[in-house]
Specification:
CATH superfamily: Flavodoxin domain
Structural class: alpha/beta
CATH architecture: 3-Layer(aba) Sandwich
Distance between the termini: 13 Å
Shape: globular
Number of domains: 1
Order of helices and strands: EHEEHEEHHEHEHEH
Number of helices: 7
CATH topology: Rossmann fold
Largest sheet: 8 strands, mixed
Protein backbone atom coordinates (compact mmCIF):
# COMPACT_ATOMS: atom_id res chain seq x y z
CA UNK A 1 0.00 0.00 0.00
CA UNK A 2 1.01 3.60 -0.64
CA UNK A 3 0.64 5.45 2.67
CA UNK A 4 -0.31 9.13 2.59
CA UNK A 5 -0.01 11.08 5.83
CA UNK A 6 -2.55 13.88 6.21
CA UNK A 7 -1.11 16.00 8.99
CA UNK A 8 -3.17 18.95 10.18
CA UNK A 9 -3.93 21.40 12.96
CA UNK A 10 -7.52 22.55 13.45
CA UNK A 11 -9.15 24.85 16.03
CA UNK A 12 -12.74 25.19 14.81
CA UNK A 13 -13.02 21.92 12.90
CA UNK A 14 -12.86 23.30 9.35
CA UNK A 15 -9.32 22.09 8.60
CA UNK A 16 -10.20 18.73 10.15
CA UNK A 17 -13.22 18.48 7.81
CA UNK A 18 -10.99 19.28 4.84
CA UNK A 19 -8.59 16.54 5.96
CA UNK A 20 -11.42 14.00 5.85
CA UNK A 21 -12.35 14.97 2.26
CA UNK A 22 -8.69 14.84 1.24
CA UNK A 23 -8.48 11.35 2.75
CA UNK A 24 -11.42 10.30 0.56
CA UNK A 25 -9.53 11.61 -2.44
CA UNK A 26 -6.43 9.64 -1.46
CA UNK A 27 -8.43 6.44 -1.15
CA UNK A 28 -10.03 6.92 -4.58
CA UNK A 29 -6.62 5.94 -5.94
CA UNK A 30 -6.24 2.14 -6.01
CA UNK A 31 -3.59 0.88 -3.62
CA UNK A 32 -3.42 4.09 -1.57
CA UNK A 33 -4.43 4.59 2.05
CA UNK A 34 -4.71 7.78 4.07
CA UNK A 35 -3.87 8.14 7.72
CA UNK A 36 -4.75 11.29 9.64
CA UNK A 37 -2.64 12.82 12.37
CA UNK A 38 -2.75 16.14 14.19
CA UNK A 39 -0.32 18.21 16.26
CA UNK A 40 -0.74 19.42 19.86
CA UNK A 41 -1.50 23.07 20.61
CA UNK A 42 1.18 25.30 22.09
CA UNK A 43 0.86 27.93 24.82
CA UNK A 44 2.79 31.15 25.47
CA UNK A 45 4.04 30.09 28.92
CA UNK A 46 4.90 26.48 28.21
CA UNK A 47 6.33 24.81 25.13
CA UNK A 48 3.47 22.34 24.75
CA UNK A 49 0.07 22.78 26.34
CA UNK A 50 -1.53 19.43 25.59
CA UNK A 51 -1.58 15.90 26.90
CA UNK A 52 0.21 13.20 24.94
CA UNK A 53 -3.10 11.69 23.77
CA UNK A 54 -5.91 13.84 22.28
CA UNK A 55 -9.36 13.40 23.80
CA UNK A 56 -10.93 12.85 20.35
CA UNK A 57 -10.13 12.98 16.65
CA UNK A 58 -6.80 12.09 15.09
CA UNK A 59 -3.88 11.10 17.31
CA UNK A 60 -0.78 13.26 17.58
CA UNK A 61 1.85 12.80 14.92
CA UNK A 62 5.42 11.74 15.55
CA UNK A 63 8.46 12.14 13.33
CA UNK A 64 8.19 8.40 12.68
CA UNK A 65 4.85 9.04 10.94
CA UNK A 66 6.65 11.40 8.56
CA UNK A 67 9.52 8.99 8.05
CA UNK A 68 7.26 6.06 7.17
CA UNK A 69 4.82 7.83 4.85
CA UNK A 70 5.06 7.75 1.06
CA UNK A 71 3.50 11.20 0.69
CA UNK A 72 2.44 14.08 2.93
CA UNK A 73 -0.49 16.51 2.84
CA UNK A 74 -0.15 19.30 5.39
CA UNK A 75 -3.04 21.47 6.64
CA UNK A 76 -3.37 24.48 8.92
CA UNK A 77 -5.70 27.42 9.45
CA UNK A 78 -4.20 30.75 8.53
CA UNK A 79 -2.71 33.02 11.18
CA UNK A 80 -1.99 36.44 9.71
CA UNK A 81 -1.16 34.86 6.35
CA UNK A 82 1.01 32.14 7.89
CA UNK A 83 0.58 28.62 9.24
CA UNK A 84 -0.58 28.28 12.85
CA UNK A 85 2.09 28.12 15.58
CA UNK A 86 1.41 24.47 16.55
CA UNK A 87 2.16 23.29 13.01
CA UNK A 88 5.27 25.48 12.81
CA UNK A 89 6.42 24.14 16.19
CA UNK A 90 6.02 20.56 14.99
CA UNK A 91 7.90 21.20 11.74
CA UNK A 92 10.66 23.06 13.60
CA UNK A 93 11.39 19.79 15.39
CA UNK A 94 11.95 17.68 12.26
CA UNK A 95 15.66 18.48 11.98
CA UNK A 96 16.65 14.83 12.38
CA UNK A 97 14.58 13.93 9.30
CA UNK A 98 16.24 16.77 7.38
CA UNK A 99 19.69 15.52 8.43
CA UNK A 100 18.93 11.97 7.29
CA UNK A 101 17.13 13.01 4.10
CA UNK A 102 14.12 10.91 5.07
CA UNK A 103 11.61 13.01 3.12
CA UNK A 104 13.61 13.62 -0.05
CA UNK A 105 11.63 12.93 -3.25
CA UNK A 106 8.35 12.24 -1.45
CA UNK A 107 5.38 14.22 -2.86
CA UNK A 108 3.61 16.75 -0.67
CA UNK A 109 0.58 19.03 -0.83
CA UNK A 110 -0.95 21.66 1.46
CA UNK A 111 -4.39 22.96 2.49
CA UNK A 112 -5.87 25.72 4.63
CA UNK A 113 -9.06 27.40 5.84
CA UNK A 114 -9.67 31.10 6.56
CA UNK A 115 -12.52 33.06 8.09
CA UNK A 116 -12.28 35.83 5.48
CA UNK A 117 -12.27 35.33 1.73
CA UNK A 118 -9.03 37.25 1.25
CA UNK A 119 -7.52 36.31 4.59
CA UNK A 120 -4.17 35.00 3.41
CA UNK A 121 -5.04 31.58 1.97
CA UNK A 122 -2.31 31.59 -0.66
CA UNK A 123 0.42 32.98 1.59
CA UNK A 124 -0.46 30.39 4.24
CA UNK A 125 -0.17 27.60 1.69
CA UNK A 126 3.18 28.96 0.53
CA UNK A 127 4.40 29.22 4.14
CA UNK A 128 3.71 25.50 4.60
CA UNK A 129 5.51 24.62 1.37
CA UNK A 130 8.77 26.28 2.46
CA UNK A 131 9.86 23.69 5.06
CA UNK A 132 8.76 20.89 2.73
CA UNK A 133 11.06 22.26 0.04
CA UNK A 134 13.91 22.33 2.57
CA UNK A 135 13.20 18.66 3.23
CA UNK A 136 13.59 17.94 -0.50
CA UNK A 137 9.96 17.00 -1.02
CA UNK A 138 8.27 17.23 -4.43
CA UNK A 139 5.49 19.81 -4.03
CA UNK A 140 2.18 19.13 -5.79
CA UNK A 141 -0.48 21.78 -6.25
CA UNK A 142 -3.84 21.57 -8.02
CA UNK A 143 -3.66 21.98 -11.82
CA UNK A 144 -6.25 23.91 -13.79
CA UNK A 145 -7.58 20.78 -15.48
CA UNK A 146 -9.71 20.62 -12.32
CA UNK A 147 -12.86 22.48 -13.37
CA UNK A 148 -13.68 23.46 -9.78
CA UNK A 149 -10.54 25.62 -9.67
CA UNK A 150 -12.04 27.98 -12.25
CA UNK A 151 -15.62 27.73 -10.94
CA UNK A 152 -15.11 28.22 -7.20
CA UNK A 153 -16.63 31.26 -5.48
CA UNK A 154 -15.09 30.28 -2.13
CA UNK A 155 -11.77 28.58 -1.55
CA UNK A 156 -9.46 26.89 -4.00
CA UNK A 157 -6.03 27.77 -5.37
CA UNK A 158 -3.40 26.20 -7.61
CA UNK A 159 -1.08 26.11 -4.55
CA UNK A 160 -3.37 23.74 -2.65
CA UNK A 161 -6.90 23.23 -1.37
CA UNK A 162 -8.52 25.99 0.65
CA UNK A 163 -11.83 26.85 2.30
CA UNK A 164 -13.59 30.10 3.14
CA UNK A 165 -15.23 29.41 6.52
CA UNK A 166 -16.95 32.79 7.00
CA UNK A 167 -16.59 35.30 9.81
CA UNK A 168 -18.18 32.89 12.31
CA UNK A 169 -16.10 29.93 11.01
CA UNK A 170 -19.33 27.98 10.43
CA UNK A 171 -19.66 28.03 6.63
CA UNK A 172 -19.58 24.43 5.40
CA UNK A 173 -17.35 23.38 2.53
CA UNK A 174 -19.13 23.86 -0.79
CA UNK A 175 -19.09 21.43 -3.71
CA UNK A 176 -16.10 23.09 -5.39
CA UNK A 177 -13.99 23.14 -2.22
CA UNK A 178 -14.81 19.47 -1.61
CA UNK A 179 -13.90 18.57 -5.20
CA UNK A 180 -10.55 20.34 -4.87
CA UNK A 181 -9.79 18.62 -1.54
CA UNK A 182 -10.43 15.27 -3.18
CA UNK A 183 -8.41 16.22 -6.26
CA UNK A 184 -5.42 17.14 -4.09
CA UNK A 185 -5.62 13.88 -2.17
CA UNK A 186 -5.91 11.78 -5.31
CA UNK A 187 -3.05 13.62 -7.04
CA UNK A 188 -0.60 13.22 -4.16
CA UNK A 189 -1.55 9.53 -3.87
CA UNK A 190 -0.98 8.97 -7.58
CA UNK A 191 2.38 10.75 -7.54
CA UNK A 192 3.48 8.89 -4.40
CA UNK A 193 2.62 5.55 -5.92
CA UNK A 194 4.45 6.37 -9.15
CA UNK A 195 7.58 7.61 -7.34
CA UNK A 196 7.55 4.60 -5.01
CA UNK A 197 7.40 2.18 -7.95
CA UNK A 198 10.25 3.92 -9.75
CA UNK A 199 12.52 3.78 -6.71
CA UNK A 200 11.87 0.10 -5.98
Amino acid sequence: MTRILILYYSRTGNVREMAKWIARGVEKHPGAEAFLRTVPPVAPVTEVAALSIPEDGAIYATTDDLKSCDGLILGSPTRFGNMAAPMKHFLDNTGSLWMSGALIDKPAGVFTSTSSLHGGQESTLLSMLLPLLHHGMVCAGIPYDQAALSQTQGGGTPYGASHHAGSDSKRALDQHEIALCQALGERVARLAQSLKQRSS
